[in-house]
Design brief:
The protein has a single domain, classed as 3-Layer(aba) Sandwich (Aminopeptidase), CATH 3.40.630. Helices cover about 30% and strands about 30% of the residues. It contains 3 helices and 7 strands. The chain is globular, with a radius of gyration of 14 Å.
């Protein structure tokens, strides 16, 4: 597997994010599209990646966007279900890039009902925090944070 930084406007990226939106809609009732603006990941302090298998097939994606000088947010994390370990590899890549860019904290939001995602982040060292930004006063949301040093 290889992970490559790309534009979120490529056909592969759009296809992966559409698959993610369909899955999120079926799990949570919300596609998550309203929580992601592709323009947020166009600057030098943001990253969008696509994971490819040995057959050059796009099998996952993820992004980080700036929140403030020390904090970035994970967005559009997705790995095809047949692709074992891809989510972990993408997240590790994003954590490394987060540190290289100069952030010290990585945060994210998912839905409580998305138990697989909640378990995924908790098992990778993310701890629950108070809901931030647009997720404040949204009891269906759960926010996480991890120190990246």
């Amino acid at each position: 597997m290889k992970i490559i930084e790309k534009s979120s406007n490529t056909p592969e990226a759009i296809l992966l994010m559409n698959e993610l939106s369909e899955i999120l809609e079926s799990i949570t009732g919300d596609s998550g599209k309203s929580s992601f603006n592709p323009n947020d990941i166009c600057g030098s302090n943001a990253v969008f990646v696509i994971a490819y298998n040995q057959n050059e097939e796009a099998i996952g994606c993820g992004a980080i966007r700036p929140i403030d000088e020390k904090t970035a947010e994970v967005k559009r994390m997705y790995a095809k279900t047949k692709a074992k370990g891809v989510g972990t590899e993408i997240l590790c890549y994003l954590e490394k890039r987060t540190q290289e860019i100069g952030y010290s904290v990585l945060c994210l939001e998912t839905r409580l009902v998305n138990k697989r995602a909640v378990s995924f982040y908790e098992s990778r060292g993310y701890h629950r925090i108070l809901n931030y930004g647009k997720y404040v006063n949204k009891p269906e949301a759960v926010c996480f944070e991890k120190s990246i040093l």
